[in-house]
Amino acid sequence: MHKIDNYLEIILDNIDEGIHIVDESGRTVIYNQKMAELENMEKRAVLGKKLLDIFPSLTENSSTLLQTLKSGRAMRNIHQEYLNKYGQKITTISTTIPIKFANGTIWALEIARDITEIKNLYYKIIRLQEKLYSNQGEDSLNSRLFTFADIKGEDEKLKQVLEYARQAAATDSSILIVGETGTGKELFAQSIHSGSRRRNRPFIAQNCAALPENLLEGILFGTRRGGFTGAINRKGLFEQADGGTLLLDEINALSPGLQAKLLRVLQEGTVRPVGGKEDIKVDVRIITTINTPPVEAIKKGNLREDLFYRLAVVQLYLPLLAERRGDILLLSNHFIKKFNQKLNCKVEKLSDRVKEIFLSYSWPGNVRQLEHIIEGAMNIIGEEKVIREEHIRPFLIDLEGFSAEKEKAAEEELKELNDAISLPARLEEIEKKIIIDTLQETEGNITRAARKLGIKRQSLQYRLDKYNLSFRS
Q: What pLDDT is attached to residue 226?
C-alpha cells in the first residue's frame, strides 16, 4: 500500500493541474506539486493543516472546497481570487467535486488552473486600450481599422455579400457574420463599423473562446468592488464600446449563462456589472461571428435559438476561397505588393507552376492561409523576383497530395483564365451576328427565325435579351 501511495504521489506531482483534497474536517490530505507552485506554498506547510489556517482570506462561504464539503454538490469552472498566508494574490479557475465514501463521509477534491498571468496580462491590455482611447481619441484609433476598400475580389458571391454589408452599415441592427476560419470575418466587421454612423466611436473586439467563463463575464460586463474577492471597479467592454461597435468573435463558444446575459443586454439596452446593484444604459451595436452553420450550432446546444434571432437581424455568409477561385491570382498579386513594401522585396509575380498549384489547391485556411503562404515565401526568396514552387513548399499543407489529375485541371483553368477575354467574346460576337442576319432575312419575325436557326422560340428570345437586340415578333 505504501508503494502505491508513492506511485500516486509521483503521478499527481507530474500533471499540469493543481490537485487539492480535504477531508470531512477541512484538513488537507492531498496537495500536489502543481498546486503548491500555483499558490506559491510549500507542500509540507499545507498537508495536514486546516484550510482556513493556511488561506486566511477564505471563509466557509467563499471557499469552493468547504462549500462542496457542506453541500455535497460539484462546482465547475469557478473563478476564484484569494490570498495565501503570505498575502500573495492567487487567481484560479477550478472545478470542485465531492468524494463520497460508503460510510457517508464526504471529502472534497479541487482541480485548479492558474490564470493569474492571463488575467493580469488581459487587464493590462484593457488598461492600455482605455489609455489609448483617452489620449488619442477614437478618430485616431479608428483610422487604423479596415474599410470596404480593403476587401479585394471580383467574385460575384463576394460582391453580393459586400453589397449587403454596405447596406447594413447604414443601420444599427445586429449582424451575424458566418464564415470559416480565414474568410475575413473581422475584416468585414471593421469595414461595417468604418462605414457606419458610429465610425468615430470605439470599435472593440473580443474572442469568446479566448477566456474562461468567469473571467470573461467581468471583462464583458465590468466589475464592482465587493463582487468577489479582489474585485475592483472596472468598466466592461460594453461600457467601453458605448456609442460604438462591439465585435464578439466565436459567439458559439460563449457559455449558456453568458448567452442569457447577452440576450438581456440586447433586449433592454443595459448591463449590470459583476457585483453591481444597478443597471447601466449602453448604446452599442453588436456584431457577432460564428465559424459553423448557425442551425448546426443551435442543434448542438452551442447557441441559444432566442439569442440567434436577436443577433442575426442581418446575416452575412462569407464564401470560401475555394468557391471564388477567380480571385486567387488577384489576391496573390495584392499580397505580393503588400509584402514587397513590408519586407523590402522586389517580387514581381508567381511562376506558372505556382499558379497551377494555387488554382487547384483546396485552401482549408482560406484567404488568411494564402496571405501567410505568400508572406512565408517572400521571407525566404532572397533576391529572386518570381515565387516558385520551392518557395511555397514549406508553407503549403498537403502539397504532396497535388495529383496529376489536379495539375491537369489547374492547367486547363489557367488556360481558360488567359483566354477569358478572347474566346468567349469571339463566340458571342459570332452568335450575335448569326442571329441578326437571320432576323433580317425573316424581316424580324422571331418565330420564323427560331425555326430557321433550329432552336426554340424561347431560346432565341433569351439571346435577344442577352444581347439587347430588339425585333418584332
A: 63
Average pLDDT value for the chain? 84
CA separation for the pair 410, 408 (Å, rounded): 5
Beta strands at 203-207 and 175-178: parallel, antiparallel or unpaired: unpaired
| Whole-number Cα distances in Å, 11 to 33, 43, 179 | 10, 15, 43
Q: Are 409 and 360 in contact (CB under 8 A)?
A: yes
Q: Which three cell numbers stand for residue 309?
A: 434571432
Return the C-alpha cell found at 304: 441559444
- The single-letter DSSP state of residue 200 is T
Beta strand pairing status for 270-271 and 203-207?
unpaired
pLDDT tens digits for range 279-334: 999 999 999 999 999 999 999 999 999 999 999 999 999 999 999 999 999 999 99
Pairing assessment for the beta strands 314-317 and 203-207 based on DSSP bridges: unpaired
Q: 234 forms bridges with which residues in the sheet? A: 223
Q: Which three cell numbers stand for residue 416?
A: 481558360
* Distance from chain centroid for Cα 288: 9
**Residue among 368, 415, 171, 387 at smallest CA distance from 287:** 171
Residue length of the chain: 473
Tell me how far the alpha carbon of residue 373 is from its chain's centroid: 20
- Picking from 247, 234, 133, the residue whose alpha carbon sits closest to that of residue 193 is 247
Confirm if 212 and 115 have CB atoms less than 8 A apart. Answer: yes
Grade residue 419 by pLDDT with cuts at 50, 70 and 90.
low
For residue 109, give the H/E element and its range. Answer: strand 106-114
The closest alpha carbon to 38, from 111, 102, 142, belongs to 111
Find where cell 498579386 sits. 333
Residues paired with residue 33 on neighbouring β-strands, in sequence order: none
Residue 1 is predicted with a pLDDT of 42
What pLDDT is attached to residue 313? 95
Percentage of the chain beyond pLDDT 70 is 83
Q: Each residue of 83-108: b (16+ CB within 10 Å) or e?
A: bbbeeeebbbbbbbbbeeeeeeeebb
Residue 398 has pLDDT above 70, yes or no: no
State the average pLDDT over residues 199-206.
92
Q: 4 is written with which cell numbers?
A: 502505491
Q: Is residue 358 scored above 90 in pLDDT? A: yes
- 348, 208 in Cβ contact below 8 A? no
Under DSSP, is residue 144 helix (H, G, I), strand (E, B) or coil? coil
pTM, rounded to two decimals: 0.63
Map residue 226 onto helix, strand or coil.
coil
285-290 sheet: strands from edge to edge: 203-207, 245-249, 285-290, 175-178, 314-317
Q: Which segment of 258-272, 382-396, 400-414, 436-450 scores lowest on mean pLDDT? A: 400-414
